Amino acid sequence: MSDRAAESPPPEEQSGKQLNDTPGTGKGIDDSTNKKENNQSVLDNLTSNPKGPLEDEVTKKFAKTTKPE
């Protein structure tokens, strides 16, 4: 096992991406034209506190009734 296994290669052996190439633009590949409208529609449909799976049963169980039927 070599002692250099985890080290970077010396500069004369590095590829262009490691040494000379310019960095990317950082813009990614998402070219959605109406992203703002899509995000707003998703945001408008969110609830602040979504209903839990047993919330209806708890409401029924603890509902006040005046007379049993």
List the helices and strands and how they pair.
Elements: H1 16-19, H2 35-44, H3 55-61
Region (Disordered): 1-69
Biased composition (Polar residues): 39-50
Biased composition (Basic and acidic residues): 28-38, 53-69
List the uncertain runs.
none
Q: What order do the helices and strands follow?
A: HHH
Taken from the alpha-carbon principal axes, the silhouette is elongated
Distance between the termini: 83 Å
* Alpha-beta content class: mainly alpha
Region (Disordered): 1-69
Biased composition (Polar residues): 39-50
Biased composition (Basic and acidic residues): 28-38, 53-69
Comma- or semicolon-separated keywords:
single chain; 69 residues; mainly alpha
Structure commentary:
- With 69 residues, the protein is an all-alpha fold.
- 30% of the residues lie in helices and 0% in strands.
- It has three helices and no strands.
- The longest helix has 10 residues, at 35-44.
- The radius of gyration is 30 Å and the shape is elongated.
- The termini are far apart.
- Residues 28-38, 53-69 have a biased composition (Basic and acidic residues).
- Residues 1-69 are annotated as: Disordered.
